[in-house]
C-alpha cells in the first residue's frame, strides 16, 4: 500500500510522448560548446516537472540515506516484513475454521495450469467439500501508479475472457471486480470473502514494494475478520532470499547468481514440479454462485482504453490466454530453440520464443517454461546439453534475478537506481530529443526501427531494447527513468523488475560490476545485429529501398538525397561527441556529494 518512500514510476491518465516542461526552463540541445554557466545542480525540481517523481499516491521521495539504510540492514525490507507477518500469524491463522468457500485471488497468474496458489486453494476446498471461488481486481489507480500500458491491460482482460470458460467447465465462478480507489482493495476483498462466507483466501506473491506491503496488511486485516490470508511464492522458480554468497549476502552480479540458481534447482528438483490444475467444484456451486457465473469481464478502465483499431491490432498480434502460451512455447521448443544461442541477437531472424507477454501476465509460469525446456534437452542439467536450450534457460533466469534484486533492494521501486549515488548524475531534459527518440526519428536507423516496432506492436526485441536504452541514456544523456517509464507505458509485456533491470544495465546505474564504460555505438550495433538491414527496412519505410550497408547510415554512405527526399531525418547527435560527454558527465556526477 502507499507509503512515504514507495514511489514507483507513475503515469498520468493518458500517456504523452514528451512530458510537459515549463517554457522558461533552459534545456540543453546537446551542444556543449556554447553553453552558458549553469546554476548549481538541483535534480529534484526538474524530476518532478517531467513526471519522473510524481505525487499522485506518494507524498515523499526516497532519500539516499534511506537507500543506504536498506543496504546496511538497518531497516526491514518489505519482503522481510511480509515473511515475519506470515510467521507471526501462522498459529492463529491455522485455528480458523473452514467456512463455506475458498477464494483464489488472481493477479499475475492468469492460468489454471501449474499455478501454486490456485492449486493450494483448490486442495483446501476439496478437503472440506467446499466450492472454490476465483476473483480478479481491476484497479485503475494501480494501472496508473504502475505505468501499465493500455496494451498490457487489454491483454490481461482478454486473458480473463479466455480463462473464464475454462473455469466454468469446472463449475468454478470468476468474479472480476472494479475498485476505483486502490487503497480500498483490501477491504473490498474482505467484504466479498465475508459475503461468500469464505474463511480462506490464497494468492501468489508479487515483489513490488506496494504489493508486498499490501499483502502484509491483508494477512493482518483478514485475520481480524477470521479469514486466513495465504500468500505464496510462485512468480519465480527460486524464491528471493534463497541464494546467498559465501559471505551470506545477496548476489548483485548475474553470473555468480546464475551458477547458484542452477545449483540450487539441481539440489531441489521439486522446484520444477508441476502444480495440478484445480479440481471440479461441487454441483451446488452453479446454484450458489449463479450471479457470478452470469457476470461478464468488464471493459478496460477509462485511463487505459485502446482505440478500436488498436484493440483489433493487438488482438491479432497477441492472442491471449494460457492455451496460446503453451502453443507458442511448444512451437519454439520444437522448431527454434536448438539454434537459439546463435540467432537470438538478430531482430530480423524471428528466432526467439516471444513468450514474455505470457510470463508477464502469468498465462505461463516461468517454472513451466524451464521444465519444458529441460525436457527438450538431452540432459537434466539446466546448464548442460544443447547450447541453445541451456542458453535460453539462462535468459529465463534473468527474470528471476531481477525479481531477487527488486526484493532485496526495494528502493529500485522508488525512483532510485540500484547504484543510488548515480542519482547525482546531471541528465539532459531535451524535449525535442526525447520526442524524436519516442517517435523513431533520431536519424539512427536501428534506433528508429526499434522505437517504431515498440509503438506499433507494444513489443521490442531484447537486443534492440539495449540499443535504444543506451542511446537515450548515453548518447542523448536523457534521464533513463523517462525511457523506463515510456517502455512501461507502451510494452504489452511490461514487467517492472525486468524493465527496471534492463534500463539499469543500459544506463549503467543498475546491477553491473562496471560503472559507466558500456556505451553502445548504434552504428556498430546495427551492422553487427542487422547486417542485411532487414529489420531496419521493415520498420523504417523511408529506407526500404536503400540498398546495401548504406541503410545503416544513409547520410554518411552516399544516399543522402534519397533519404532526404523520403523525409528521413539526419542524425540528431554525433555519437563520438556524445560518448565523450557521457563519460565526463558520469565522472562529474559520481564526485558529487550523495547526500
UniProtKB/TrEMBL annotation:
Transmembrane segments: none annotated. Residues 26-36 have a biased composition (Polar residues). Residues 1-11 have a biased composition (Basic residues). One of its GO terms (biological process) is entrainment of circadian clock by photoperiod. Its cofactor is (6R)-5,10-methylene-5,6,7,8-tetrahydrofolate; FAD. It comes from the Eukaryota. Residues 37-46 have a biased composition (Basic and acidic residues). SUPFAM superfamilies: Cryptochrome/photolyase FAD-binding domain, Cryptochrome/photolyase, N-terminal domain. Residues 100-237 form the Photolyase/cryptochrome alpha/beta domain. This is Photolyase/cryptochrome alpha/beta domain-containing protein. It comes from Viridothelium virens.
